[in-house]
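Practice problem: Solute-binding protein
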Amino acid sequence: MKHRHHQSSLALIVAASLLGLSLQAMAKDLHVAYAGSMGTVMDLHLGPAFAKAHNVQYQGEGQGAYGLARLIAAHKLRTDVFVSITPGPIEVLIKAGLVKEAFPVASTAMCIAYSPSSPYAKDFKEAAEGKVPWYKILQKPGVVFGRTDPKTDPQGQNIVFTFMLAERYYHQPDLVNKVLGAVENPRQIFTEA
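Answer key — structure tokens:
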């Protein structure tokens, strides 16, 4: 098995024009809503660096990007900047007339993260080395697979999509059902910390 990275667009969408604000017109507080998976990058790196460079206070809020986009579109959440990892949530804002365009600025790969103290760590290491198919490890009894909610988080949607593609690519009928179960499977859905 070749080691493959499933590429997905990381559309770090910066819509500073969301409320028609320019940097000069912005108050001393910069409110940024971002996809939950961007938490570390936004809160530990980009946010503080931008705040320092532009002499503003950074205030970040991370959640599922679709949920944030819907709150912004409904005018329930005020933000100066919105960062999404996929274009779908941006479409919500475009349809609401809040954004005209957005630009992808980076990309990422889908990967499987596991605990080195997991009883299956050796198996996952072998899968990473191409010695055993990764999807076989995920089907072992006792393996707990966690993902985010595909209804509110593009990353959750990308996981489902990745498994659908893997099912076809690896000729593994019913792989989606064998590993994920139902698309909305509460036993697997977790929020990002």
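Discussion: The chain has two domains: 8-107, 110-179. Students who identified this feature from the tokens alone can consider the problem solved.
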